[in-house]
Fold this sequence. Notes:
76% of the residues lie in helices and 0% in strands. By secondary structure, it is mainly alpha-helical. It has one domain (19-70). Helix 1 packs antiparallel against helix 2 (42-70).
Amino acid sequence: MKRKPINQQLMVVLGATMGLVYLGGGLLLVTSSLSFSIFPNETFRYLFGALLIAYGTYRIYRAVNEYRRENP
Length: 72
């Protein structure tokens, strides 16, 4: 079986890593009291945190599917 080029393998790893970063950032915003003076109130902080969690989960899901497609 032929392996994918290194740049495609790197993109899968980078995609999963960035998914974890987004997921961690979202969890940080939702669970901590830090707003970094960016958000005017807590509602925006929670909404943005939830958005980051959803996007991070999607990125991880996409990276796992890509990895499974490359390595059946």
